[in-house]
Design a protein that fits this description.
single chain; alpha+beta; three-stranded antiparallel β-sheet; 10 strands; 39% helix; Protein DpdG
Length: 288
């Protein structure tokens, strides 16, 4: 089973099951989950959303059966989840999909990782996508010349998963289109790992983001997929977009010191040349 399979619920449906489990004080019986979350199901033997959600979570290392009574608990990066913490849910899914925080890269997410790597190699400043555009213009874009997504039935699951992981978003300017906007994931990683109001070396921040979001250009998953970064200091367009959006929204301050030895190189469509940045500071803002 893969995350793009028709039987696998979309992340929004998975969140409903996860939130219910997180709200309980201990293991929850499978029948209890079905009774509360599938109240209109008349056939107790027919497999539904709860079954396929639990199967997907188990494959990702995020849920496990407790004992022989078909009781379920959250596991891995979801083990201590609060039922109201959607951002933590996003981060836990991202860790499981990308093989971080003790998780191994699950086979169930192979196609998703491949599609994310391709997506984050694109330019959100100038590109937005529908399946029709991908099918006609981008199916051979992977370094090995293979199809990015095998068919159109995978497009909707891909955009749903990418958006939930904070590694993509609906285009704000054109309806029914997707852009590789990884701002949410970048913001969450920096909130967790970069102290606020303390300037940090920009190259260190770039390496931090590639470590925790290895599907970005220059990250391990991206490079192992054949997307080689020619310069360790070159920031891809997707990450440049996210960092400059953070600057625009005032939760990031990026500065350039003329004497800096290793500034990073941001892609800025409003400049004739690359933008150099030597330090990055995260700011705490209201409703961050």
């Amino acid at each position: 089973m893969a995350l793009f399979a028709a039987s696998v619920p979309h992340p929004g449906e998975i969140w409903v099951v996860v939130r219910f489990l997180a709200s309980q004080s201990g293991p929850v019986a499978y029948d209890t989950l079905r009774r509360f979350l599938e109240p209109h199901s008349r056939d107790s033997k027919k497999l539904g959303t709860v079954h396929y959600t639990l199967a997907a979570l188990r494959s990702l290392g995020l849920a496990e059966e407790s004992g022989d009574d078909q009781e379920w608990i959250l596991a891995g990066a979801l083990a201590d989840l609060r039922s109201d913490d959607y951002a933590a849910f996003q981060g836990a899914l991202r860790s499981a999909v990308l093989g971080l925080r003790g998780h191994q890269p699950a086979e169930i997410a192979d196609d998703l990782r491949r599609a994310l790597v391709w997506s984050l190699s694109r330019d959100p400043f100038s590109e937005s996508f529908t399946w029709a555009l991908v099918e006609v213009h981008h199916q051979g874009d992977a370094p090995d010349g293979e199809s990015v997504l095998l068919n159109g039935t995978r497009w909707s699951p891909f955009t749903a998963w990418a958006t939930t992981l904070g590694l993509g978003a609906p285009a704000p300017h054109i309806g029914q289109r997707y852009i590789p906007d990884c701002t949410r994931a970048v913001q969450q990683v920096l909130q967790e790992h970069l102290p606020a109001d303390a300037p940090a070396d920009a190259l260190d921040v770039l390496r931090l983001l590639r470590e925790h979001l290895p599907v970005l250009p220059g990250g391990d998953i991206s490079e192992s997929s054949g997307y080689e970064s020619p310069d360790d200091r070159a920031v891809g367009t997707a990450l440049s977009f996210a960092l400059m959006r953070g600057e625009h929204e005032k939760w990031l301050v990026m500065s350039s010191d003329s004497d800096a030895q290793q500034p990073i190189k941001l892609q800025d469509p409003e400049r004739l040349s690359v933008r150099h940045c030597s330090s990055i500071m995260r700011q705490e803002i209201a409703n961050d």
